[in-house]
Amino acid sequence: MRASLIQIAVDEGEPVNSRRSRVASLVREVSARDGSDLVVLPELWTTGAFAYESFAEEAEPLEGPTYEAMAKAASDAGVWLHAGSVPERAASDGALYNTSLVFSPEGELAAAYRKIHRFGFDKGEAVLMAAGSQLVTVRTPATTLGLATCYDLRFPELFRGLVDAGAEMFVVPAGWPERRREHWRLLARARAVEDQVYVLACGTGGTHAGVPQAGHSVVVDPWGEVLAEAGDGEEVLTVDLDPAKVAATREQFPALKDRLLGQAPPPRA
Predict the structure, then answer these.
(1) Can 115 be counted among the known catalytic residues?
(2) Known catalytic residue: 178?
(3) In this protein, which residues make up the domain named CN hydrolase (predicted)?
């Protein structure tokens, strides 16, 4: 399968509606040019991950303008689209969530994942947004995706849970800061090695509310080898992946079978 990560540069001077239209066009262009099966966008690319004051103002219902634009882009392009995340305002109680959206090639919503680990400690996202509570996987014809978002990358138990649920490829949209770029690169490889999966980690460029972004979107294989890595600005990474390599890696080096703590992996059918 072929995957494309679109590392968006968030320009604070670009209106959200303009960026939404531009990104939808990028999805179509990249898919047509590269023949992608899966396209991935970053975290909170409509607002910027550190533009805390914009979260409430730009919050959308689940089936809001970003949902509509990305559903159409996925359908037009005929690709699986991980549309990054948006600030979602829940219809049930008005709470805000950092919610990722995944669409099928028919433009149907395949999954929504509310970010579990919110960054900021006692400020920012950690106090402005509610925490999700559900692990989410998406079965595609080629593989099973496990969904996580940015700060989640620091919590390996989440990814163990996704492996136990059958994930063979982690998709991690992010708005990671430049000052902790080496953590981003290290943790992406660590999650790939310890869980013997592909990791597709898609970040942003530009500056969010005065915070320079790390960029350096990266694709890592189940042995921890970096297959492609972006630079600092807006960029597209397109990589050919072999889903069968996950099973082959786990057979050649069956470390997951030796787990003693936590839940053991379920038997394979």
Answers:
(1) yes
(2) no
(3) 1-243
Inside any domain, residue 183: yes
Tokens 């050649």 sit at which residue?
252
**Does some domain include residue 265?**
no
Instruction: Specify the 3-state DSSP secondary structure of 153.
Output: helix
Average pLDDT score over residue span 78-98: 97
Per the structure, the complete domain to which residue 97 belongs is given by 2-258
pLDDT digits (tens, 9 = 90+) for 16-74: 999 999 999 999 999 999 999 999 999 999 999 999 999 999 999 999 999 999 999 99
Q: Give tens-digit pLDDT for 208-232.
A: 899 999 999 999 999 999 999 999 9
Check 43, 58, 88, 168 and give the catalytic one.
43
Q: Tell me what percent of the residues of the chain surpass a pLDDT of 70.
A: 97
Catalytic residue among 58, 88, 125, 150: 150
Which residues 6+ apart lie within 8 Å of 66 measured at CB? 20, 46, 60, 83, 86, 101
140 conformational bin, left if phi > 0, alpha if psi -120 to 50, beta if neither: beta
Quick check: 268 pLDDT over 80? no
Query: Is 194 assigned a catalytic role?
Result: no
Number of domains in the chain: 1
Q: Is residue 266 part of a domain?
A: no
Residues 6 or more apart whose Cβ sits within 8 Å of residue 120: 126, 127, 128
Here the CATH number for the domain that contains residue 175 is 3.60.110.10
Residue 263 within a domain: no
CB atoms near residue 220 (< 10 Å): 24
